[in-house]
Amino acid sequence: MQALLAASSTGVSDSAENISFPATFAFGTATSAYQIEGGWQEGGRGLSIWDAFAHAPGKVKTGETGDVAADHYHRWRSDVQLMAQMRLRYYRFSISWSRVLPNGYGAVNEEGVRFYSMLIDELIAHGIHPVVTLYHWDLPLVLQVEHDGWLSEATASAFVQYAAFCFARFGDRVKHWITLNEPAVHAVYGHARGEHAPGRRSRPNREPYVAGHHMLLAHAYTVARYRKEFATKQAGLISIALNSDWREPASESAADVLAAQRSMEFNLGWFADPLYTGDYPPSMRSRLGTRLPTFTAEQRGYIANSTDFFALQHYASMLVSARPESEPLPEGSFYADEAARYHSLPGARKNVLGWDVAPFGIYRLVKWVQRRYRPTGGIVITENGFPLREESAEEARYDLERICYLKQYLVQLARAMQEGVVVRGYFVWTLLDNFEWAEGTAARFGLLHVDFATQRRSAKGSAAFFARLSETHSFRYHAAECNATVPVNAAFSQEAMQLQLIINRTAELRAQSGRSTSASVRSAIMARASRLVTLADMQARHTAENGLFRATRSWLAKAAKMRTFDAAAADKAFGEPSTAAAEPLRRAAQDLEEEVRQIENELAGSLAGGGEIGVGEAEMAVAPMIGEDEELPGVVPGVVPAEEDATREFGRLQTAVIEVL
């Protein structure tokens, strides 16, 4: 019996992984001006489109604005001290365009310039490298009013002048630049959905592409200017930050695989393809026709190869299927051209914003980027983070969900790096709880909790974790600490073969004795069948969390099949006897009942610790597996074929059953 229990142990493996990154790997945090600065009418700052949008009733769910936000404008010095205490070496922040050029062009606000210059100096004094984003969605309001913002190439020209001004004033100390943050999100949410500034939605299948086109041109001309006038002397690097979910095919059908690829191209490829090939993806060109702007030959020369590294931002993943022609979206919808449907990932946890948490997504995304673009300078994850609704500093101290999110995504990033993907940095969104756009301050991403009533900062558990990571470039990860699923396919295999063996022996005993199966044996069989359902469901969740959706469907099918193995089926299978058993056989049946009871008791003891069960990787490598097409336990005479190959694991049970028979 002990041999059997050792072979079928379902406890979680005690092994933990040590995840490490190169000493040169850049760990940092990220913020943006409108989300943390406040001081909206101080220091000569001009208005931005987000000032106007947030003050319009109903635009922000909580009714809040960024007027004060995290008050970083007044607390920047102490915030830098907190960064130093966290041992950060890189800090990404954005410059408010309207704080240095209140109208977006023309007159300079020297007080605003001085604010950023002092911030940069303070960071460097504490050994922190500044990474500067020139535009994080807060367009000067004057440019929106005078030129319709990014719908005009005039705004792109104004951006180039603004960027050159920043290079001249700050480039002697700033060595890493981001031109624009998530232009695809800005184009769609600001010019199609109307949920972000400037809140346009009148031509949702045209304006986003015009705005995006001008943002790409602004980036391309800015990089050309930087490389011509500043890069050599200042020895800096420049890129543009692109956001993407991972889009996984909902099935293996050719239509769904094509839809998922098209979805990636309509989202990430929309901006990334021009940066590396000089033009938009062919799938977009063929579907959008003249609604998609074109680049001149000269513009293609500027935009192709206009990044020194691939700045990638990622939070969540989804399933994508082909949208049937019989279910078209309304004419004019931005999403109609993509011809895809979005689905939640089976078994995935969701964060407070409803996004699916799927660590495998960042692994597949960076692999996709590496294969498609082979970016010079590698990939830098410039944003990744996890929101929670933390009502108090005390509650926020124990943000285990955020720590686990960061750990699990970093585990997958390290895995991709081990397989040859060049990743050079990782920035957490975000340093401080902030004004999270249309969500207000309800969704908190920060490593530091902010009490917005008092502006008091408090460190969360994730701040301590990230401080250690920044210093050591490594951490320990155990699936159990994050309530992550573990593989239980081996446990399922062992349990299934044991159930099959008991069923066969019970049926054989009944055939010899003519006696019906007792209630206790039948109950033990049903309990074991129920446990198989649980194991199959757990394995389905584990495969889903790892993006193995074909296996997920197979395990869900196994669970569904086992659910049909109910008491009525058992009654039908074992039936009622027509003759009474002889006394020796009656005693043998009682012995069998006792044997099954012992098995149940000892296995129950092994499960008493609660939580999810499974085996470690080393055990899984040699454990028996149930294949996708293998049959589940059923009532059949004789010995299961697997029994001969599992003598060591099941020998004790076989001997015990044979002896009582």
TrEMBL record:
Catalytic activity: Hydrolysis of terminal, non-reducing beta-D-glucosyl residues with release of beta-D-glucose
Stretches of the chain forming a coiled coil according to its record: 582-609
Pfam families (alphabetical): Glyco_hydro_1
Keyword Heme: no
UniProt EC number: 3.2.1.21
Origin superkingdom: Eukaryota
Keyword terms of this UniProt record: Coiled coil, Glycosidase, Hydrolase
Gene Ontology MF term list: beta-glucosidase activity
Gene Ontology biological process terms in this record: carbohydrate catabolic process
Similarity remark: Belongs to the glycosyl hydrolase 1 family.
PANTHER family given in the database record: GLYCOSYL HYDROLASE, LP05116P
Name of the molecule in the record: beta-glucosidase
Organism annotation: Chrysochromulina tobinii
